[in-house]
């Protein structure tokens, strides 16, 4: 029986893959309002100053600041109310020496005014006169032209995943369409004579396909566009046909197949048949997930994930998701959510192997605790019961109860 | 000028709202494969045992464990190979006393077998005989029937937001459709004579609508279905008409309006006109975001958010998003992502007020640091430059540089 060759630690395995992988993100233009979670295709510069006019941040009066210098309760400054600047007015009243104009939060100042006196610091003397009892500095209670962002300033870098405030910032500048990376299409294929579609009732010895559906959801999470190819039987021709057709319409191909040696060999043969350079690495020193294949068919990544659904998910998170993010041109393709938590029980590992152990998180006495989820590591419901995975680094033989550990969230 | 009444701290303000709010989630049935991030409408029990047959976790031979007891390198057990159980076989070969059947990882055992001997612990003697050099216990190298999940066991609770593994778990059991909460429709309306649609070029004194678009994206994030109603001018009749029409087709109404006192008064009047019980609270002791209105028109939540886009986002996160999650029946509507980080500079606050200060996060010397983002708190680009908000609790007058603080992520 052939053994796995080139077994490398996860980081080295992926680094080896990346030395051969040349992602070429494509861009497309979408409406900014529909661009949540899309990734910017290039750096976006501000086409104008924001705000485009000086705005009051308080209700009160716009004034020339010098007219208020020295004003106090005992010696107020008397100003003439020249009028008001209503919200949305496009031709503001002029504010000359010793003039004031009624100003509203968010509104414009009178022409010639350079500061706003809060209404609380004024007294109405008569219909057209106010007392100002505190001085204001130039610019006080105002947002200056370009104070939010200046024309030509970088608004967003390339490779940035758009959040609600980014969409707001684009709209504020009239950028109603935005160039984003096209979502890479990820073909997903399961194989195995025992695997049946979930809508069928399994006979003895048959199991329903899980990996097509967890992978589909994980592709969506990563920002890709999943395409389910279906289930191939354990025959080389049938697998090759499905894989080849799938790869033709996709940017990435993900196969999950059984973990028996014969099934692994078959998957490897099928991947080799898809084209050069072919298999870059077969086997990663990780648990679960060792029998994983990293390959390229031309420029397209092809991943052979283990059939075990837990392994498939772990490897997807570590290898496939960062690859999708690279195809999106995302600036931080390897970022992930994690927390530090105290283990409630020991988790064992083997030195020279990275382990991921499902864990339930809970806060006890104000501290985050990670409770390892018992059960064999290949059971899907250990994942369902977990909210993250305890990461046991390569050089550790386990992590003791009471120690802090990194929990990778999902 | 009327002052804000009932100014309460954020938690008390929302608690007051919740005493009047009776969310009634509605459910709908969707395809499980399309249900990522949807919320389960009820608890789901497993309709069957998983796995439904005992599965090998190793390549090797299925045997009767008792036949291997005492086996060693020096005194191997000799077993007859009765055949193999191919993947997907539905009628497995029988394994009698002193028999073995070839078994594959993930496959079925021979009928009568109760354990699997790893291939590494066997030697082929001749075409039909093997030596077993180590004993196995009953159940060894197997996953038992129901070991993943048992028939009748709770698969997922009600109010659970579906993750990739949950979808996999449902599919594994043949649950191809799932009852989830209908997405609440959230009507979003901006108002202000100065506010124009983003595709128009502003004249002096005009600003483009930001809040409609940040709120739309935030509604999507929270699991709701946004409906943009447009921009109303600062006239009561026009605002009322738009608000009433919007509320008619929505489960929640979010208005954002200017922060000037007159504009706040107008918003309050419009909200009162929508029906009883009306305004529950007007004003929250929070910065930014004080002039916020929490109201109910019949059973429907109506929120008056400040026009300032930063305030609107903060209040959306604290009040509107948890309300949408309650309408979804989500079990943890108030959960949010946060981290602890060390402040690089002091942030000031006022005791008796909760402050949220935008911050950039970066890891320096292995430690997470939060750098406050400078600029007036009402500038949208302070949000764009930030990855979270420093939370200054009610009873603090600030947080010193070098102190740890909670950062709410967005």
What does this structure look like?
The structure is a homodimer of 410-residue chains. The first copy, chain A, has helices at residues 10-20, 164-172, 211-222, 236-248, 261-273, 309-327, 380-384; strands at residues 27-31, 44-45, 55-56, 60-63, 77-84, 99-103, 115-118, 122-126, 129-132, 142-143, 154-156, 177-181, 185-191, 195-196, 207-208, 225-232, 252-257, 277-282, 286-287, 293-297, 300-306, 338-343, 347-348, 354-364, 367-372, 388-392, 398-399, 404-409. With 410 residues, chain A is of the alpha/beta class. Chain A has four domains: 10-24 and 183-327, MoaB/Mog-like domain (Molybdenum Cofactor Biosythetic Enzyme, Chain A, 3-Layer(aba) Sandwich); 27-49 and 150-181, Alpha-Beta Complex (Molybdopterin biosynthesis moea protein, domain 2), CATH 3.90.105.10; 55-143, Molybdopterin biosynthesis moeA protein, domain 3; 338-409, Beta Barrel (Beta-clip). In chain A, the strands form eight sheets. In chain A, strands 7-4-6-5-9-8 form a six-stranded mixed sheet, with no helix packed on it. A six-stranded mixed sheet of chain A has the order 16-13-17-21-20-18, with helices on both faces. In chain A, a hairpin with a 2-residue loop joins β8 and β9. The longest helix of chain A has 19 residues, at 309-327. The first copy, chain A, is elongated, with a radius of gyration of 31 Å. Chains A and B meet through α2, β15, α3, α5 and α7 of A and α2, β15, α3, α5 and α7 of B.
């Amino acid at each position: 029986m052939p053994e796995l060759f080139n077994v490398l630690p996860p980081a080295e395995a992926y680094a080896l893959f990346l030395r051969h992988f040349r992602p070429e993100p494509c861009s497309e233009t979408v409406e900014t309002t529909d661009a949540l979670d899309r990734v910017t295709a290039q750096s976006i510069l501000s086409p104008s100053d924001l705000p485009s006019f000086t705005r009051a941040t308080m209700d009160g009066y716009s004034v020339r600041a010098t007219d208020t210098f020295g004003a106090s309760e005992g010696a107020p400054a008397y100003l003439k109310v020249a009028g008001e600047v209503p919200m949305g007015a496009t031709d503001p009243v002029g504010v000359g020496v010793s003039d004031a104009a009624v100003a509203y939060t968010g509104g414009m100042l009178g022409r010639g005014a350079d500061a706003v006196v809060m209404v609380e610091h004024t007294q109405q003397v008569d219909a057209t006169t106010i007392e100002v009892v505190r001085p204001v500095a130039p610019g006080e209670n105002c947002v200056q032209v370009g104070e939010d962002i200046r024309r030509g300033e970088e608004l967003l870098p390339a490779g940035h995943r758009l959040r609600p405030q980014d969409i707001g910032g684009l709209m504020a500048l009239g950028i109603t369409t935005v160039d984003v990376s096209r979502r890479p299409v990820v073909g997903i294929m399961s194989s195995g004579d025992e695997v049946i579609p979930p809508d069928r009732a399994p006979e003895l010895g048959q199991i329903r396909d899980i990996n097509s559906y967890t992978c589909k959801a994980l592709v969506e999470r990563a920002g890709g566009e999943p395409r389910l190819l279906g289930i191939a039987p354990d025959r080389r021709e049938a697998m090759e046909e499905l894989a080849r057709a799938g790869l033709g319409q996709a940017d990435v191909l993900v196969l999950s197949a059984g973990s028996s040696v014969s099934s692994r060999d078959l998957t490897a043969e099928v991947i080799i048949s898809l084209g050069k350079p072919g298999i870059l690495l077969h086997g990663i020193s990780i648990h679960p997930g060792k029998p994983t294949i990293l390959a390229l068919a031309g420029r397209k990544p092809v991943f052979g994930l283990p059939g075990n659904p837990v392994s498939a998910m772990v490897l997807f998170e570590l290898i496939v998701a960062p690859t999708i993010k690279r195809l999106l041109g995302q600036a931080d393709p390897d970022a992930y959510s994690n927390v530090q938590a105290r283990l409630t029980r020991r988790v064992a590992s083997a030195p020279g192997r990275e382990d991921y152990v499902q864990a339930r998180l809970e806060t006890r006495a104000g501290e985050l605790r990670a409770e390892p989820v018992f059960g064999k590591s290949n059971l899907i419901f250990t994942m369902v019961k977990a909210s993250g995975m305890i990461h046991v680094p390569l050089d550790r033989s386990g992590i003791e109860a009471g120690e802090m550990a990194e929990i990778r969230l999902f």
